[in-house]
């Protein structure tokens, strides 16, 4: 009966297996002492029972060995001694032996309360639980084997026990049964609590699964966003390649323009040298012409003095001059023609000198304008080169940033559910940044268009300057032709003067010959004729003086006009210089504004790049945190699945064991009914 009670107590305790992981503790049944056998007489009772029933001693040997193997857990284990032979002691020792079997019965594992939060301790607890359950099953098997062997002996001993002791033992057994039933009720309540706890854990596990599914969906959305960003990056790379090609074409154009500028510089230098040489040659020619004119004036004065002397001589030789009047009149006509030619030549020389001065001034002005334009073109080319270098540096920085962004975007994988709002804000900020980048691109395009327009205008100006230079060259060629014609005329005049000098020498010789003839004429006629000639000569001299005064007035007026024109020219040149300075100042202001705008754009681009880098760092950190959380959730889900599978497996085993124990209890009940029925 004691063995049946202990097994009945073991049966509900095996249902205390609960899932979800936890630390199990051993619940040792209280070692109840039978009322007829106190604790000190346990060894003697066991010895008497072994003496009374030697078969019980042999069967209890494995139980005794098991009690020794527990390491002192059961302090009531004893050795069955087979020395006593009294039959009365056997009746009293039977309850003690049953108490010994009760104390050596297997201990049941019960849950120690709510499970711990540690994940790594679950596996260790489950393994310990498995080992303890296996030990319990082995002990239960040993107990069943020993009970099957002891049942026929129990029948024999029960027949010999008196009815008085039987009544007392039954009352004790009934009390113990009530206690065991109350304990079973408590254990059932605990089992129900554990089942509710298991349901809560399963609901939590389902919630975690739903969260994991949401996280996976969110990761898919993040992947889609990542693909979109990659497509945008590819588009930007294509645009950058186009910009690189455009910049390369601009660099080639700039190199061509530089070569053209160098050629134009060399041509301008050559033109300057040729113009200098021409001016030097013209100055020399003008000096020679002035010297020749002075020589001609000296010759004319000498001729006039000679003519006066000859007229004085001719006044003495009037009679001889009558024959030579016609010839003399011809000479006078030729003189007048020569004087007219000389005056015309002087006027032409003056006009040529004025034209030369104008050409020199115009050449100086054109050279100064060309130099200014060349300086402005050089300065603009330098600014363009600086801008191109800046653009190259910005492009290199953008390339590095794009590479860094690509490397960072490859690391983006998943994002937390709580940070969706932040990601939307980041998306809006990224759109703003893209709009700003598009604005920057549009401004760069506008700047490139402006540069192209500036270069076109420069080419047009250079073409105009070339046309002007060609026109100046044509005018200089015309001046050369005119100068050559003037030189030819001067040579002809010199030849005619030499011819007239020869004629004058011949006439002087004839006059000397005629003088001897005229000495024979009368003095009165000579005096009268001389007076007439003197009057004529005086009239001619007065006319010549009046003409000279008129010419002097004309020359003074021309000089005043020249001075006035020089003053106007100086004023206009000052105005032109002031306008040129204003244009240069305006150009410098425009360039400064352009440089300031470029600096502002670069600073904005840098700020935007810094913002993009910060946002990408934040996204990276949050993605890493989300990845860690997702990994933890996955590991927890896997661990929980493994734990649930192990718990299910252990529950199945426990159910099988419970069924086997139920069958065994039914067998015991049937045996009890058959025995006491």
From TrEMBL:
- What does the UniProt entry say about where the protein is found? Cell projection, Cilium; Cytoplasm, Cytoskeleton, Microtubule organizing center, Centrosome, Centriole
- Which GO biological process entries does UniProt record here? negative regulation of cilium assembly
UniProt keyword annotation of Coiled coil present: yes
Coiled coil (residue ranges): 226-267, 293-503, 534-671
Q: Supply one GO CC term from the record.
A: ciliary basal body
Q: Which UniProt keywords apply?
A: Cell projection, Coiled coil, Cytoplasm, Cytoskeleton
Q: Which residues form the signal peptide?
A: none
Task: Write down the InterPro entries for this protein, in alphabetical order.
Answer: Odf2-rel
What is stated as this protein's family in its record?
Answer: Belongs to the ODF2 family.
Q: What is this protein called?
A: ODF2L
Which source organism?
Answer: Cervus elaphus hippelaphus (European red deer)
Query: What is the organism lineage in this UniProt record?
Result: Eukaryota, Metazoa, Chordata, Craniata, Vertebrata
